[in-house]
Amino acid sequence: MLLNDDLQNILEKEAKEGWIFKKISNSMLKFKKEEPQDIKYQIDFSSPTQEYKEILKQDGYEFVDNFTELSIYKNNNINAYDLQTDETTRLLSLERMFTPKHPIIFFLVNVFYLCILEFFRLIVFDSLRSLGTILQSIDVWCIYLILLLLFLVEIFITLEQYLYKCIVHCQLQQKKYYLLPTKIIEIIIKILSIIMIILGIYILVSQIFDNHWIDFIVKTLILYGIITLFRYMITKIAYRIESEPMQKIVKIVTFILYICAFTFVSSTEISKETKNNIKPYMNDTQINQDIYSNIFYTSYVSTIEDFDTIYKKEEYEVCLNDFIAKEIFKSEISYYERETRMPTQEEIDKITEETGEWSSNDVPYQSYENAIETYHKYSNSLVDECYYNDLVFIARKDQTILISYLQNEDNYIDQVLNHYFK
Amino acid sequence: MARREFETLTPQMFYILLVLYHPMHGYDIMQEVSRITNNEIQIGAGTLYTLLPRFEKECYIELVKEENKKKIYQLTSLGKKKLLMEKERMLKQIQILDEIDAQE
Q1: Which among A46, A58, A88 has CB closest to B46?
Q2: How many CB atoms lie within 10 A of CB A335?
């Protein structure tokens, strides 16, 4: 849109129909309905110094709005002279607008992105074992994809800016080779943005299923406010300041404040209470209860972590439908098989051979078919399937899954199943 | 690329430099150019204020003093040289035109 030489004509045509231009932002123009009138609009890229403003005022020009370096002026006298009278000069100032980021900043930003991506990649690729684990970590996948798309968009935008610069430069020599690639890049950026918006909407929706949704909505609103303010400061206020050092200081201060506010708001918890309507079987004064959820399942976890006693944990999962429940059941079987198994010497040797040391995190997961062999089947009419080993039992009934560490009690499994499913 | 910007001067650029033989601030430049060209060439404020810092960067003009926040510029010797080079170029064009015109 910035390149569009017709912008002036559009504004003037709208004014004739009574739509008076008020505001410009990254993606839109804002008009207000008034009396139809003839107004002359001019687009300019000069930084507005005092002297410049006075000259414009003398000739009846009035500042309307700006977006970064692009300022829009209006004049009620349609016979006023143009601000840009020399095409070569206009292209020169346009070219300055499309200067891509400094290579060092571009490099640092991308390294930062790659670090975050790598961090998420480790979590995400760990969950590639089975469909069940992917379903369980769908939120992390979404965040990972959004970050990946942001990274791509960042690169494409830089490329686009570079092409714009080339276009402007080539207009000096009357060439238009670059228009097609720019159009293609624009479309790619749009598609990526749409995917990102869809993923973003998913995350918003999935939060509503969560207990923290009030917390989340309040935070989102505050963060949205901060981002809007930040953008306003950078794109409008900073560019209206005359002296360049001052402009830079304002930009840097705004950026630092923005980072601080963002980290502060996103790290504070507004409501700390979590409602938990699932009563665990175990009786203890120190039960920690947590809820994890995404659109596919909700998991209620009750734990007592005390180093003196045996580890106690009960996990009750409600899934969206039977199919998802079966998939998650499979992944839980292989997850708890690894949790409760002491790795064999062979496995330890293999890990130490590769890395020089070993931790329980390095032990590979077994496939569901292999893992289920190590469990014993337990029959109870209350549930569809139930398996146990020396330490843990896992049961499934329709859409719900129950996992519990075994305790020293008579008929422990029956007791727990009765408690949850009766 | 920066070097090639002012390889040839457009008429607007040419007249801005020309009137700066005498020290002058922005608004006066615009008035003076229209006066000496009998309103044939009007310089827009946007064009003028894009060009002034660039000419200054290229050392064609220099800041003489600042009065009431108005910057007064004057042509440098390099600027004069640039104008004379322009003259040569134009003379050459005219000469070639005359030669071809005479052959017809």
Answers
A1: A46
A2: 21
ipTM score of complex: 0.80
Mark yes or no for CB contact A45/B51 under 8 Å: no
A88 is written with which tokens?
A: 């070569």
pLDDT tens digits, chain A, 422 residues: what are they?
Answer: 344 466 777 888 888 888 888 887 766 778 888 888 888 888 887 777 777 888 888 888 888 888 777 788 888 887 778 888 887 888 777 777 776 667 787 888 888 888 888 888 887 887 777 888 888 888 788 888 888 888 888 888 888 878 777 777 766 555 566 677 778 888 888 898 888 888 888 877 776 666 566 777 777 788 888 888 887 877 777 777 767 777 778 888 888 888 888 778 777 765 555 555 678 888 777 777 777 777 788 888 888 876 665 578 888 988 888 899 999 999 999 888 888 888 888 888 888 887 777 777 778 888 888 888 889 998 888 889 999 988 889 999 988 999 998 887 888 888 888 888 87
Most A CBs within 10 A among B13, B47, B66, hence the mutation to make, goes to: B47
Which run of H or E residues covers position A276?
none
Closest Cβ–Cβ partner in B5, B13, B45 for A52: B45
Distance from CA of B16 to the nearest CA of A (A): 12
Q: Do A89 and B25 touch (CB under 8 A)?
A: no
Q: Which of these, B5, B1, B12, B17, lies nearest to B78 by C-alpha position?
A: B17
For residues A136 and A328, the answer to whether their CB atoms sit within 8 Å is: yes
The pTM (predicted TM-score) of the whole model is 0.64
